[in-house]
Amino acid sequence: MMLEVSMSFSYGEREILRNVEFKAEKGKLLAIIGPNGAGKSTLLKAMVGILEPRGSVRLDGKDLIGMKPRERAKMITYVPQSSFPEFAFTIEEFVEMGAYTTRGDVESALKRVGLWERRKEPITSLSGGEYQLALMARALAQGSGAILLDEPTSHLDINHALMVMELLAELKEEKIIIAVLHDLNLALRYADRLMLLHRGRKHWEGKPEELKPGVLEEVYGIKTRLVEIDGHRVVLPEPAKV
């Protein structure tokens, strides 16, 4: 299964994304990184049709941009940055919203994230980390072949952040997984490929082990070191000179 993207996007005359091209495939988690304002969230929204880009998004050769929303929902799922719902749906009802257009398997999705036994509780009873798992269950219930996640570990404690990333590492064997991540160390640990966006363009792409400190300095404007700890690469800021 292969997702191929080639797009640009503008708000009026203001160009937000310019000639961003990349591929993502099942079995390899792609993490999109970059500073605030780089266009990461805009890219995901354009890929799922929330915004109207110029270009193409093809899943196994099928152009998603030209599809009707209901048809596209069967192919690709978007998980936005988490914000709690205003209404006290049960957890099960909340997840069923994702399966509405595709008739996906709600029970299987809730069991996958460990929330099946709590399905009759109000969604507002969940902690931030548990709510992120509910969002992922809703995405799984949609049953599409590709899932795009916008900062799935944002505002989570380390336990839930790792829980979410471990789940994504499992899901990549079944689906195409693309995640926008601010935490560079989580990206280095879990991603199979990284794509670095800067000012609406693809600045760098490659395997985590290929990333160099100079590339990060060009984009983030700070000097860093990349060191290996317990078999994982870690980004550390260079100490300030006194």
Keywords:
4-stranded antiparallel sheet; 8 helices; 242 residues; 12 strands; globular; Rossmann fold; single chain; alpha/beta
Low-confidence parts: none
CATH superfamily of the largest domain: P-loop containing nucleotide triphosphate hydrolases
Give the overall shape, derived from the CA principal axes: globular
Average of per-residue pLDDT values: 92
Q: Kindly give the count of domains.
A: 2
Short description:
By secondary structure, the protein is of the alpha/beta class. It contains eight helices and twelve strands.
Descriptive overview:
With 242 residues, this protein is of the alpha/beta class. The chain has 2 domains: 1-75 and 145-211, P-loop containing nucleotide triphosphate hydrolases (Rossmann fold, 3-Layer(aba) Sandwich), CATH 3.40.50.300; 84-143, no CATH class. The mean pLDDT is 92. Helices cover 30% and strands 30% of the residues. The protein has a 6-stranded mixed sheet with strand order 6-7-8-3-9-10, with helices on both faces. A 4-stranded antiparallel sheet has the order 2-1-4-5, covered by helices on one side. The protein has 8 helices and 12 strands. The N and C termini lie far apart (52 Å). It is globular.
Which helices and strands appear, and what pairs or packs with what?
Blueprint: E1 2-11, E2 14-25, E3 30-33, H1 40-47, E4 54-59, E5 62-63, H2 69-73, E6 76-79, H3 91-99, H4 106-112, H5 128-142, E7 146-150, H6 158-171, E8 176-180, H7 184-190, E9 193-198, E10 201-206, H8 213-220, E11 224-229, E12 232-237
Parallel strand pairs: 3-8, 3-9, 6-7, 7-8
Antiparallel strand pairs: 1-2, 1-4, 4-5, 9-10, 11-12
